[in-house]
Structures are given as structure tokens and as C-alpha cells.
Amino acid sequence: MSETQPQSQRPELPPSWNPAEVEGELYQRWVDRDYFTADPSSDKPPFSIVLPPPNVNGSLHMGHALNHSVMDALSRRRRMQGYEVLWLPGMDHAGIATQNAVERDLAGQGLSRHDLGRERFVERVWEWKAEVGGRILDQMRRVGDSVDWSRERFTMDEGLSLAVQTMFKKLFDDGLIYRAERIINWCPRCQTALSDIEVDHSDDEGELVSIRYGEGANSIVVATTRAETMLGDTAVAVHPEDERYRHLVGTEVELPLTGRRIPIVADDHVDPAFGTGAVKVTPAHDPNDFEIGQRHGLPSLTVLDGRGVLTVPGPFEGLDRFEARPAVVAALREQGRIVAEKRPYLHSVGHCSRCDTVIEPRLSLQWWVKVAPLAKAAGDAVRDGRTKIHPPELAKRFFAWVDDMHDWTISRQLWWGHRIPVWYGPDGEVVCVGPDEQPPTGDGWHQDEDVLDTWFSSGLWPFSTLGWPERTTELERFYPTTVLSTGYDILFFWVARMMMFGLYAMDEVQPFDNVYLHGLIRDANGKKMSKSRGNGINPLDWMDSYGTDATRFTLLRGANPGSDMALAEEWAAGSRNFVTKLWNATKFALGNGASIDIPLPARENLTDTDRWILDLLDRTVSEVDGHFEGYQFAKLCDALYHFIWDEYCDWYLELAKVQIAEGGERAEATRAVLGHVLDVVLRLLHPIAPFVTETLWTTLTGGESLVVAEWPKPSGAEPDLVAAKRIESLQKLVTEIRRFRSDQGLRPGQKVAGRVRGACCADLVDHVASVRALTRLEEPGDDYQVTMTLEVGLPTGAVKVELDTSGAVDLVAERKRLTKDLAVAEKELAQCDGKLDNPKFTDKAPAEVVAKIKARREAAVVEIERITARIDSLPTA
RNA sequence: GGGCGCGUAGCUCAGCGGGAGAGCAUCGGUCUUACAAACCGAGGGUCGCAGGUUCGAAACCUGCCGCGCCCA
């Protein structure tokens, strides 16, 4: 397997960690060695991960950086565990966004796509893609993504396009694709239909105008936020139970400004409490009105064109909808028909998710996917556990969406995308052409002008990228994929569509076994990062300033499943500090001869300290594994951070100095432990922070690469609880002495003569040297004079520490310190007594809880006695 | 309007029936030979409010207040 260089030939560690200088080189080395290339013929268990394909024109934002950190961490761990990992990279063609970008480009030269014509325009988009598209792929390299570049795909590739056509034909033949004239979301700027989820709703300030239709007793007042559409009204609707209007139902009123007479109809869906309880009905320009129109056989009158310009002959013809609105209101006001006006009036308005233009509901003929059966299958796959959603709470959201999903408009009035494979004949024939069929030719035959929604093709991604519709070995081996990771806001975009299509195309086999949903990235104030707010942080800036490892660690450390995370620069700086800490610790260990070449001595030949850190390491390995399995990235990072910084660096390294100073076998054993712990911990951290761990680990071990190193397992040793207790005592004793020193104003580095008494009674004989070293106690000389004695209660017993503080002791500080300790102990005693004096507690609480409280009480009593005695013995100032 | 989620230290969040925690920030002290991007020490919370269940509630139930998200 991997070759290991002898210690003498291993590279020296550079004096400091400069991520920017080495990350690119390290990454390229991994790629060159084909570590990330999947081998479908291997006999390893498969692990495959779906990259939600980013837009060809997109660039990396924090959400991507988080998601890619997640996917990479998962992939790297599995690779180390011996799985055959396939993480396949690629992009989608982003129909609307890309066409917009190229059209903007053309506009700069005074051209429109129509000047070029369809064919030339599409060529131009391909050129654009080659020149400026795909920036995000380079950025993925910066993140360190361990993707298989040899399998990169693009939704407009030949193979994936074939998959699209195959899927369309299959759905069409099964009656799941149909063509219908309905109200759709139309973007007057992008000039295309949009599906419901491509529309964002916001509460905007508008106006609510009440208009009187008709005259005298027969008149009726309607309230509207869209006065300009009244020109297309074909009815007024009221609720059937509404007493106010019952007499008018069935009559007609004259529609102002037009002279047309329109009926008053009764419809259940009218809300009698809204406005006047009467609504104007414009079937061609409002989805609800369209439905009312359908129910009552009303005509649909289109009065706005695709640009949102009024087309009704007369004074308003040619006015844009937003100019027409005040103009129509003014004309109505002149006739005395405006009964009330409310401005500003806050109401929900749909905007194009691509360009933010206000959506125009528009009656038009489009292709649709009948989603009910597909959506039901998607819901069932989650319901019966074939696909698990992490965290499970979010499954509710998925069901809510999938169980009440409207049909999906899939045609887009664009040129960039997969053209709808339907041909229309001279006599009204409609022929859907499959991938192996020839389209009909001859006079009068022509192909549908529209293309498919980009999500139609990205919905196929989990299997089209593996070669579907062919049954390739890749497909056999890597489908269903193991996990899809994405933000919960994208649940309905990728997840729902991939689920529907995957189950349908792959004989009811789900596209992924797991869906991990992370939270949204917010700024330090909890506001969502967005371009319009200008509060976005560019992950590449962080990678430049703090390194990729620190950036990844920051993101993953904040990733609690399903909940959002707030980010600020300090977070990244903190992670950078952590990486630096690890660097320095390794440097120290190596400088002291830490090595993996020294065999780890048998446990009985190790010290308490060694066994303690090895046991903690075992626990950390188990914790990290558990958290990986549960997608608990924040906890995983915390476990590693805590172990490395608080246990290994703050305690073990300091204690190791003492052991190394002993020399001989003790020093040699310590070097083995130092090296072993580092080796394991670097492996554990590698999926999170691949670059720095690779650098440190190859230096430490001379191994080929951590990418292909083995994932650690717990040693299986029984934890030494006695050693753990002694170390706990040691730590407490050290802290107490330091606290005293600090309270007495002694400098941390200042040596103080002193002795530890009673170590044997506290079972700490072997640890006195360490305590002395960590608290800077020096051997008493001839002039030794005990000026202060500390009594410290420890888990293993009590010890006395004598100190020569060479001078007056600050008695006020010492009294304060003891008084504080006394208060803590007294509070503890009171708490315990409170419980134990309650017979209900002693009767009903479990015996072990009662025993525990009793033990705590005893400890508190002893503590109080000791402290009280100390206070009493202090000379009064 | 319907649904979901969240209110715990100054900030960001863990904890989700038996001793209030972490990171960052704050305060005091230190260049103690891996690390001042560090070390040592310290302070800081009626766990949103009000009831209830329980021997025991930050946690479970109900109501209220505040915030956020999704859908209409």
C-alpha cells in the first residue's frame, strides 16, 4: 500500500504554516495521484454522493462552501474507511440565468439574441461557457473537494441531453406530461414562464383601490391592488351567502371605461371579509380569477402582452402596467368611481427569483408535468424509510410540500436549454420524439420552440451522470447514491425533483439513501446573507486570510443539523488559531522526538498520564465516529477541538515534558505516545481540515498521504478509571495552586519554593513531580520558610501544599479566596440538605440518585470543615 | 390565514427530567525554552413570561409575549 519513508528522510516542517502557499500544490498532488478517481470494478463497498450541480455561471458563496465542506468531509472519511468513493462533479446549464448573462453581453454590443438567430445564439452561449463559465469548478479545488474530475458532467452534455429526451418521452407516453393553457408565472423581463418555486413572494407596498362598478342601486364596489387589469374584467364575484349582494347575483353591471356589461356571479372562494366582499374577476391575469372563470364559464380577456404592456385599444394602449395603474385610477376618479384608496397597502407580491421583476400572471399554453403520482412516490420513499432525512424533523416539511404539490410548468420560452422533443404537424398532430426516433419531416412540421426547465435535467442528475438510460457499471454500482447534502431551503428544488424522477426512472429505487439538510448562513447579527443586503462574506477571502482548513472548520463547527448559523470574521480567526495550535503542538512533539516508529509500550509499562490521554483519544475516536454517522458536524468539531487543545496541548504536552525530562525508557515511551496520539488525531481531523493535517502527518509518519490512510478505530483497551481519577486530582491540585498564586499576585513564571505533603494519602505519589513542574514549585533551599499552607480536597483525597512565598502573604486576598470557597461549599450543602430533608424525595427518587446526593453532602461537610479551620487559623490582619 | 421552528452568559449556540455549559468577547496577570494567532487566573445567567404535571423542570403539558421560516 503506502510507502513509508524512514524518519531520517522525512521532510522538515516549515517554521510556520502558510496555507495559501501550499494548498494548491497539495491539492494538485492528490488529483495527480488519482486518489479521487472512482473505480467501479473494485470490490470495496460503494459510497457515492450527489453534488447538487451548481450553476455554470455561478460562483462560490458561503452556502456552497459549507455544503462542499460537508460533502468533502463525508467523502474523505469513507475513503479512509476503505469505501470506493464516487463524488461526481459538474454543473447545470442554468437556462434563464445563463441566457440572461449572454444577452446582457450582447446588449453591450447593441445586439439582441434575435439579431443572431437561435442557432448562432446557442453557439454564442457555448463560447461564453468556455470563456467565463465554470468558475465555480476552480473554486471547488480551493475548498479541497475530493471529487472525481475524470467524470465531470454538464447537463447540456450529449449523454445528459439524451437522458432528458428519454425521460420526456417516457413521461409523455405514460401520460405524465401534458400541454395545457393556464395561468402561469410570467417574467416580463426574462420573457419566460416560471414554475411556482422560481417565484419569491415579499410583502410590498402597493395600493388598495375601491372602485364602483355600475350605477345606482345596482352598483357594486370592488377592491383591487391592480386597477389596470380592470380593463380585462369579465365578471364581479361575491360570496353566495353574502346577504349584501344576494339580490345582485345574476344581474349585470357596466364595466367602467369600457362600456362592456359583465355578470355578477356567486363563488365560494370569495372572502366576504376582504375589502367590500366583492371582487373583480380578470381570468386572463390572475390565477384565482382564472379558476372562478373556469367555474362560471367566463371568457378570458388578455389585456397585457408579454412585456406587461396594455394592449387594449384606447387611451391606455401601449402603457406599461405600472404606468397604466395610476392612469386608470385617474380616469376612474374623474368619473367619480373611486370610493376609497389605501396607500401604502402592504400585500404579497411575486418576484422573479432570477431578476426580481414583478411576476405577471399570464394565461398561456405550456407543457406540464403531472406531479401527483410522482410526488406521492417521493413522499412514500421517505415515509417508509428508504430515504432518511437528517434531521428527521425536516421530513414534515418535505411531506407538506410533496403531498400538496401543484403541477409543474416545464416549458421555458428560452433558447438555451433542452429543446422540447415535440413536433407539431400541419393538421394539428402532436408527436413526441424519443431518442431513437426520427422526427417527422415534410411541409408544415415543426419542433416546439421552447426548452425545458433546467430542473428537469438536474432532477435526473443522480442517475443521468452515471450513464442512464444505459445500465452502466457505474449505475449498477453507485446508484442509489449514499447521501445528498444541501441547505434546507433547497429541499423542494433538488431533493423533491431528484426523488420524483429517480423513483420513476429507476424502478422505484430512491436516488439517495440519506438527505442531509444543513442550515442557512447568516451574518453575525443573524441576518441572511444576500447580495441585496450586501452582508455576504466571500469564502475565498476567508481562505486567503485564514486558510481553507480554518474556513472549513469554522463552517462545520457551526453546522448543527437543520439550524442556521451566524458567522463573523472572529469565528474564522478562532479556527485559524486552532490550526496554528495544532501546528505548534506537532512542531513541539517532533522537536522532542515524537515518533510512530517507536512501538507503543504495553499499557502496564505506561504512566497514568499516558493511559489517561490514550483513553481520552479512544473516546474521541468513538465520539467523532458517532457524530459523523449522525451528521453532527458541530459536535464532531467540538470534540476534536476540545481534545486537541484542552486535553492534548494544555495537559498532556506539559506532562510529557516532565516525562521526557526523566530520560531513558520513560522518555522513549512518551515519544511513542506523543507520536501515536498525533497520528490518530491528524487522521480524525483530516476530513475536516485536509491540508494542514496532510502536511503534519506526512512529516510525522513519512506516509504517502492521509487521503489514503486508514481511518482510526478505538484501541479496544479497557479505560483505566483509576488513572483518570488521579489525573483529575492532579489537574484540580494544579489549578488550585495556580489560583492561589494568581490571587497572591505571583507571576506565572516565578519559581516558588514549596512542598506537597500527603500525596500518598491522595494516591498521587507518582504525580508530585508533575504538579511541581506545572505550578513552578522549586526545591526548598536552606532559607526555606513556609509562609502559607494550602489544603486542597481532591477526588482521591486531601493534600497540603506548603509554600515559601518569600515575604508577606496577602491575607486579605487569601481570606477572600477561602470565603468564596466556603460559600460554594455551603451552597452545595444547603442544596443537598434541601433534598435529603424532604421525605418525598428520599422515598420516591431512585436509590442511586439519593446515594449520590448523600455523597455530595458528605463531601461538602468535609470541605466546609477544612475551609473553616483554615479561615480560623489565619492571622487577623 | 394555515403549518413549522426558535427564545439559555455581552454575542453565536450546545444541553432537552436529578450538580447551569462551550467558543468568542470581557477583566487581571505573564514573552514560563511548541505556541503573545499564546499561556495562567477570574468575572458573568430568577434558562422569554405565567400557570400546571412531578419528590425534583432550562428540559414535559397548557396559555401568553417576542422573533424567524415555509405555504396560501
UniProtKB/TrEMBL annotation:
A Pfam family annotated for this UniProt entry: Anticodon_1
Polar residues bias locations: 1-10
Domain Methionyl/Valyl/Leucyl/Isoleucyl-tRNA synthetase anticodon-binding: 610-751
This protein's GO CC annotations: cytosol
Keyword Oxidoreductase on entry: no
Region (Disordered): 1-20
Motif annotated as 'KMSKS' region, chain positions: 528-532
Location in the cell: Cytoplasm
Coiled coil location: 808-835
Residues of the Valyl-tRNA synthetase tRNA-binding arm domain: 810-874
Chief location category: cytoplasm
Aminoacyl-tRNA synthetase class Ia domain location: 26-567
Binding site for ATP: K531
GO molecular function: aminoacyl-tRNA deacylase activity; ATP binding; valine-tRNA ligase activity
SUPFAM superfamilies the record matches: Anticodon-binding domain of a subclass of class I aminoacyl-tRNA synthetases, Nucleotidylyl transferase, tRNA-binding arm, ValRS/IleRS/LeuRS editing domain
Enzyme Commission numbers on file: 6.1.1.9
Swiss-Prot/TrEMBL domain comment: ValRS has two distinct active sites: one for aminoacylation and one for editing. The misactivated threonine is translocated from the active site to the editing site.
Assembly: Monomer.
Listed PANTHER family: VALINE--TRNA LIGASE, CHLOROPLASTIC_MITOCHONDRIAL 2, VALYL-TRNA SYNTHETASES
Job of this protein: Catalyzes the attachment of valine to tRNA(Val). As ValRS can inadvertently accommodate and process structurally similar amino acids such as threonine, to avoid such errors, it has a 'posttransfer' editing activity that hydrolyzes mischarged Thr-tRNA(Val) in a tRNA-dependent manner.
Protein name as catalogued: Valine--tRNA ligase
Protein species of origin: Solihabitans fulvus
Lineage, highest ranks first: Bacteria, Bacillati, Actinomycetota, Actinomycetes, Pseudonocardiales
